[in-house]
Each structure stands twice: as structure tokens, then as C-alpha cells.
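Case study 2.
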Amino acid sequence: MYLAQREGAVGYLYLSVGLILLIGMHSIRLVAPDWRERLIARRGPSIWRALHTGVSLPAVALIVWGFSLASADPVWLWLPPPWTRHVTAALTVPAFVLLAAALLPGSRIAWRVGQPLAASVKLWAFGHLVANGTLAHVMLFGSLLAWAVVSYVVLRRRMLAPRLRTTEGMAMRDLVVITSGLAMWAVFAFRLHGILMGVRPFG
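Prediction:
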């Protein structure tokens, strides 16, 4: 019991540090866009990508490690009712479609949403937050949800949405985005989620 509690405390520390690093790195675009642009102009985009990756990858590793340790001695804040799992499943489907829209630009979906990646994270984080009541889950998904909401609002306000001069080819791109998103959701939900997270959402 003592060992589990000690590992849990260390896990919360790693999880917190990882979240601070990851969200902090991805928030530079929000809070210091001019500094980011100057750095890219002075050092080049490859240096920025290296810096971004060099911070983000260890941050993700800390989050995964910390979450795993914290889950060894979970602190329950509430017990989610069974139906919340269906909410998670329902929200993750459009989340993956929006992720595909962010990865495959040029669709009407991406143009309408404006910030499909932030919108995807919002749905994904909220869906997992309502279905999991431990402190570790709240720290992880609550933090990502808050970042996604702020990111979406700030970037949408900055964005000057261009008028569509033509819709030619957009219906096909939308079809590709929807098909790709559903395929990614199916692969992750039925295969990768169990392998990576140790939990099979659909048994």
C-alpha cells in the first residue's frame, strides 16, 4: 500500500511536469506569436521544429509514465455512471474526423471549423473526462480540454477566414476526410486503444 501511494505521488509529479511542458510548448503560438515568428525567421523552421519536438516528446513520455504510476493508486473524485462510456464513444467519432480534417487540409469541414485540431482535442478530452472520475484523469483530460478551448477561441479570433472562391473538389475532400477519420477511429478504438492504454472500449 505504501509503495503504491509513493508511486502515485511520483506519478502525479511527472504528470504535472509533462502537462506543463506540453501545454506550455503548444501555447507559445497563443501567447507569444510574434516571438515565435521572429525565432523561425532568424533560425529557420527546422530549428523551431527540432525545439518543438525536443520538448514535446519528453513531455508526452512524462505524461504517459506519470499517468501510469498515478493510476496504480487512483484517487476517485466521482464514479461515472456506465452510460458515460457511450458519450465517449459518440464524441470520439467526430473527434477523429476533425483530426483527419486537420491532417488533410483543403476540405470544407476544415474551412467551416477553422481550427479542426483544437476542436478535435476538445471533443476527445471532454468525452474522456465525463467517463473517468479519477484525479489523474481529471488532471490529464481537464488540462487538455482547457487548453483546447482557449486555443480554439484565440486562434479563431485571429484568423481571417478567406472567402471560398470555388467549391470544386471540396466534396471529394470532405469524403476523404470523413472516410479517413472513421477508419482511424475504428483502428484506434478496436485495436490500438487496448494495446497502448490497456483498456478495450468495446471489449
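Helices lie at 2-31, 33-43, 45-70, 84-103, 108-113, 116-130, 135-158, 170-197.
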